[in-house]
Design a protein that fits this description.
This protein has 231 residues and is mainly alpha-helical. The chain is built from 13 helices and no strands. α1 packs antiparallel against α2 and α4 packs parallel to α6. The longest helix is centred in the middle third of the chain and has 18 residues. It is globular.
């Protein structure tokens, strides 16, 4: 997706402001999704600056830029700017009520913010359950399941967390959930097996960091304190 978006920015059509804003914002969201926060924020700022310069700061084309910026700020626990961008994207989502993916992504990002500000129990009480629509993007669906499972684990609702994971197949994106649940239930051998079988691509920085964090937890539980500290 990043390669396609970079190519689009070289085309003559990028002179059309709405197209440029949309492509920059979408690139910001893709990079934030893969954990490249600095690049995501740079692209989001560029998209929003372009929109303001052409007098279209609230155009629907800015939605992805606000999503990308919000996700990057959430990763950095910068809660005030995350809330500001989510408020802006929320205005656009309410206009584009036909977009299931927009609606679901908005709700799940709001739940992430609530988990950081109010705690996991509060976030679980929010109306953001994954959509049953067949048109929902799988990447958003798995992110929602990941969030839901981690909120349940953080709240001590381990039986419910296992039930959520049992409803899904062996999806690589949910490896962190399965490892965390195994650790929470004291099943160290399963956690080790899952960790050894999870090999995220090197350019997916979010997943690489998440795996290193699980490696720390598993190694620490195994008593390998020096290796855990290295991870």
């Amino acid at each position: 997706a990043t390669s396609v978006l970079e190519h689009l920015l070289t085309l003559p059509g990028v002179d059309y402001p709405v197209f440029k804003v949309y492509v920059l914002g979408t690139d910001a969201l893709v990079r934030a999704w893969s954990g490249h926060c600095a690049e995501a924020l740079r692209l989001a700022r560029s998209a929003l600056d372009t929109a303001r310069a052409f007098g279209i700061p609230q155009h629907p084309a800015t939605t992805h830029a606000h999503f990308g910026a919000a996700l990057a700020h959430l990763d950095r626990a910068e809660l005030e700017p995350a809330a500001m961008h989510l408020a802006e994207s929320g205005r656009q989502v309410r206009v584009r009520v036909a977009s299931v993916t927009y609606f679901d992504l908005q709700r799940s990002l709001e739940a992430r913010l609530a988990a950081l500000t109010e705690g996991p129990t509060h976030a679980l009480g929010m109306p953001w359950a994954p959509s049953s629509s067949a048109s929902e993007a799988p990447v958003v669906r798995w992110a929602e399941v990941d969030l839901h499972t981690h909120l349940l684990i953080s709240s001590g609702e381990l039986v419910s967390a296992r039930a959520v994971l049992d409803e899904t197949g062996n999806v690589p994106e949910l490896a962190p959930c399965r490892i965390d649940l195994a650790l929470a239930t004291g099943d160290l051998s399963t956690a080790r097996r899952l960790l050894d079988g999870w090999h995220p691509p090197a350019d997916d920085r979010r997943s690489v960091v998440r795996r290193l964090l699980r490696a720390f937890l598993v190694l620490e539980a195994e008593g390998e304190h020096r290796a855990a500290a290295s991870a």
